[in-house]
Amino acid sequence: MRSPSSPTAGRDLRAGVVFVFPCLALLAVFSYWPVVRSAWLSVHGSDLVGNATGFLGLSNYADLLTDPDLRSVLLTTLTIAALVVVMATGGALLAALPLRRASQRGGRVVTVLLSLPFAYSAAAASAAFAGLLAPSVGQLNALLADLGVTGPPWLESQGWAVLSIAVTTAWYEFGFAFLVVLAALSRVDRSVLEAASLDGAGEWRSAWSIVVPAIRPSLLFLVVTQTIAGLQVFTQVQVLTRGGPSGATTTLVYELYQRAFGTGLPQYGQASTIALTLLLLVVLVTAVQMRLTRDRA
Amino acid sequence: MTAPARRRPAPALRVGSALRWTWIALVVAVVVFPVWVTVATAVSPPGRTGLAAMFPAPGDLTLDNVRTALAGFPLVRQFGVSVMVTALQTTAQVVLAAAAAYALVFPTWRGRTVAFVLILGTLAIPGESSVIPNFQLVSSLGLRNTVLGIVLPFLAVGYPVFLLRQAFGQLPREVWEAARLDGASHLRCLTRVVLPMAAPQVVTAALWCALAAWNGYFWPLLITDTPEQRTVQVGLAQLAAGESTTPAVVYAGTLVVLLPTLLLVLVGQRFLVRGLATRAR
Prior knowledge:
Chain A is mostly helical. Chain A has helices spanning 9-42, 59-66, 68-99, 104-115, 122-133, 139-146, 158-186, 190-198, 203-214, 216-231, 235-240, 252-261, 268-296, and strands at 44-46, 52-55.
């Protein structure tokens, strides 16, 4: 390691700055500046073409908490995020834990099959579930009808629609979650597990009391990334429900899209308020993650 | 996924094993169901629904739905746009990230830590919250409805820097120091010494970038206006949301969009898992 006083220190400074500058400059323009600009837009009104007008203070933010429509958008988003975390992370755990003991070849085939959803983008998963759940032509209810069962109105009733959006999201997040859990499990010290089974700890008990704590960092990572993914849900809503029925599946990003880029006049002020709210929620979740990770270390 | 070397199982364990495989089979059935429906319906004769579309006879297999999907929407053209976006975005991101990661690991300079914190900080900024200012900026540059306009905001990227910084940090520093003492420039050190040594991790970073570029949706939707300039993801979503398209055609379109990433997950899984293991730490 060179000391800062060595003759090459000046050259190293120049090299460091030159190599890091393009990356930092682009981040400044397309990541940091938009935050500042959005914050500014969010405390101003906007005119007919979306330009900022007079100073409004925090009234746009107050609307988010007092306007019943916006409050329900926030609630819907949080509900979907919670459902996604539970279904994707919980599902990954329930799928990967039994594989811990499965035979090698069988385990490998199952691994490939269970990671298939990871290949789906939000748009591809939404298209696949649109084909499954679409009113009157959906494949799932056609299949259920062939089996003599009347399927529920997946996208036409408010409760079912929220669940359908969450399931679509959780399904394609599952592939990633499964791979993370599996990778974490393969790193768990085998001697610990064997010691547990010698002590007569049952399969499930050893799973819950030894394996789960051992992969806690990966689970925490999944809960955080899936919460963030849940907060950002958009494509599924646009393809499957367009925010309906009667606004039941309108999420933060869909509302942002409607207000800034929808068919009506652009409302950049309110849309920016939603953007900053999303940012604050994501930063909050990330801060909690960092706090928990640090406490452990 | 290495199974332990097992002794001959006791009878109680065999019951456990049967239960385990029943459970695994159930999970696989639920998870694979949408994939199976995607593929089976896409290659079934048009108009089939329900059980008939789930299990087409081998003689019935047809590409009629795929043809309809390709004809009805400019999916082929959009596929081309997506390929260009993915190639350009991935290349640029990896080059920028490799340079930045090099600067953060090898040369010792004041401000290195600050630069890293600034890059790391952007990982907590969701792209969706930046779209309005970015839309105004890219529009004012006259880049709406262009490939460059789709790619530009994504060049601001933190994750591959993070990934490559970690990879470079694990390389033997003496090799770099020896190259420097031999008079190699920093650029030469990066391209001839560091990158070849970290090749597997560079591939991992590139695959993650490519996956994100191919799968992008929200920004490409906002910044493009005409069907010909849209990416294949946006095209597919519009195909799926169209009132008149049948599920069979939607599935055929899904299959087309899915093929590259499906190949990536099947062939490149080793590399992708390496990336996510780094992320999970």
